């Protein structure tokens, strides 16, 4: 079982931008119902897909990073490959859809 990494404004660069390979970042907030609904799916992806690093960023606690990526709706999942954003999914989505996006970029 892989851990989901909680990223912050402070460790964003080291955990996401400097990572070689694919990173899936779930932008979320405590008060967001759809974020709570997608959380178990994000956890399943973390456990089932070997070649992707899975991270979560609380938008209320990390405003600078959320603003940098123009997060206006949550949940938003952005996929980064070798430090560059390559895809995103806004709103609740299925595990199959997330796996499809991941497979496009592996």
From TrEMBL:
GO terms for cellular component: cytosol. One of its GO terms (biological process) is cell redox homeostasis. CDD domains: TRX_family. Residues 1-106 form the Thioredoxin domain. Disulfide bonds join 32-35. The record marks 26 as: Deprotonates C-terminal active site Cys. InterPro entries: Thioredoxin (IPR005746), Thioredoxin-like_sf (IPR036249), Thioredoxin_CS (IPR017937), Thioredoxin_domain (IPR013766). The active site is at residues 32, 35. The record marks 33-34 as: Contributes to redox potential value. GO terms for molecular function: protein-disulfide reductase activity. Keywords: Disulfide bond, Electron transport, Redox-active center, Transport. Belongs to the thioredoxin family. PANTHER family: GEO12009P1. This is Thioredoxin.
């Amino acid at each position: 079982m892989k851990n989901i990494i909680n990223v912050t404004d402070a460790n964003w660069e080291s955990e996401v931008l400097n990572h070689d390979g694919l990173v899936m970042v779930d932008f979320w907030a405590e008060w967001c119902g759809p974020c709570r609904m997608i959380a178990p799916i994000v956890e399943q992806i973390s456990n089932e897909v070997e070649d992707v690093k899975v991270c979560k960023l609380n938008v209320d606690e990390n405003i600078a990073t959320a603003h940098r990526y123009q997060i206006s709706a949550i949940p938003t999942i952005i996929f980064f490959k070798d430090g560059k954003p390559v895809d995103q999914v806004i709103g609740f989505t299925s595990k199959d859809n997330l796996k499809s996006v991941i497979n496009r970029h592996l």
